[in-house]
Amino acid sequence: MINMLNKMKQQTKDKNKKLKPAKKITRPVLAYLDNAAATSLDKRVLKAMTPYFSDIPANPSSLHAPGQAANAALKRARKSIAEHLNGHEDEVIFCSGGTESDNLAVLGTISAAAKFIKTNHGADAVPHVITTAIEHHAVLEPLLHLQKTGVIELSLIHSDKEGLIAADDVISAVKKTTVLISVMYANNEIGTLQPIADIGRGILKYRKQNNSAYPYFHSDACQAAGYLDLNVEKLHVDLLTLNGGKIYGPKGTGLLFVRRGTKIGAQILGGGQEKGLRSGTENVPGIVGLAKALEIAQQERIKESTRLTVLRDRLIKGLLKIPKSRLNGHPIIRLPNNVNISFMDIEGEAAMLYLDAKGIACSTGSACASTSLDPSHVILALGMSYEAAHGSLRFSLGRQTTREQVDRVIKYLPGIVERLRLISPVSLDMSHFTNNQ
Amino acid sequence: MNQSQKPLDITARQSGQSGFYSDVVKEHFFHPQNFMENEEGYEADGMGMVGSPACGDVMRVWIKVDPQTSRITDCKWKTFGCASAIASTSMMSVMLTENGGMTLDQARNIKPQDIMERLGGLPVRKIHCSVLGDKALRMAINDYYRRQGEIDKIEIEQGRVIDKVLKITDHDIEEAVLEGADTLEKVQNKTKVGTGDPSCIPEVEQLIRFYKEKYFG
What we know:
The complex is a heterodimer of chains A (437) and B (217). Chain A is α/β, with parallel strands linked by helices.
């Protein structure tokens, strides 16, 4: 018996050994320029969240006092978010982040519309969905899957070569069976802003003229939330996706705004939380943090946009001095924090790692940095060549970004590109930036 | 295939590791050895090149050979590609020239697995980035024999070339299947086949089915 106990103790010890502390970053990060991938947690957000980790441990569905305290916090968060979106409290559905929110919007509205389409357009009819070729994978992948399995008919709208989607292109693709249009507010890779309000107005007009509840309009605003107006009445969206981890809030938090009256089916079933649309015990500290993060982001967005636009343009100007380089996306109609540039004859991951060695963190659209063998679908959709997509680097600035950090990139990147070009056997001329096939 | 020839089980060996690069890979990536700084005036005895910038990897290898001993006395290279591609070519050039240099016969038998082992492994999804260096080398060796007029010593790639851009052969696909890749995606992760020449994909799928049935029933 004692032997067994000792053995168990030993096992516990071994287990504890496995729980290693977080790996320390050995080099100082001198310029974190990957804020489109993940932002740091704002200290004010952390402070707002702290009581809900331990002091108020309860499940907000519980009727006892601690449960009611948690429930009250949840309500306050919902109210604050609804105010920032100019919507109603019952229109906010909390979930685990941008991907889940996008999936719920897409899969939920399509599943709810399938019967309607069959009743109104015949048993062979399937819902038609419109989205863009430069959409985030969290929208594209579920839609491509449904298209492949014959559940929907899908139209992909192409952008112009600067990444802009024309509202008219979207509206003219609408047909009687169209149930959903999904267009992102700002692109995560190239930062291009889309005319959401124009598309929204066009959809409203179509619905009115045809006396139809469809098509619904969804927009992924994960990257836009820190810089743009999220007023759903001005944007005319029925569904809007937000992610806490991109706006200095907690990772693993997000929400879907669902306008009253929108027919949508749940994708996660269980205890019926979030109006039955997203079962699972609410992440109270996360939701409190998400609300605080959105509040700060919206309060500071204009000031922060002005500050970052200057730094963004400084970085673009500095980096385009490198020979055989080209900006991806529109030069002005883009997020204040996004810089995406392709460098010919080099591979993005190699450049990214050399920058990392100089304490600069960024990302790349190269295939080698992704899990697939294809480079960025967004840069290819701009009509750029595979070569240009492999050689693309994205710098996404943020609240901590300073002019010194931007200048650090301008100082080190030219030498890195030069060195990698020296190692590279490839030397293409500028005509290879675009796909001429 | 007998026991001694069995390829290293890269996947299993790696699964305990993180998806990041080993110190050896980093060393060769940040301080690449033997790369061709200046082609002008370099008199190579043989040169080979594979890949295309569109599919993300290009490798070019130059060798100098001592005709008396058939040993490689110098090897230079240039690589367009990610960290693992650059580090693999750099390591290959070291392996070829260390200890007095490999003989051409030894050099011909270098496998991506040998290079990876010396690098301390590569993240699983990066293995395909390292499989082109040895192909460029074998082309350089053939080029050497061609220049020497020793046509009989030229060895055509084992098997039949399936992907004409990346010079991937049916033999490469067979090895990938033997190492456990049973879908097109998994074979591509190991060999990159079809990214340079997508028209060969139907044939690749057929070959995967064929080798799966041959070895696993």
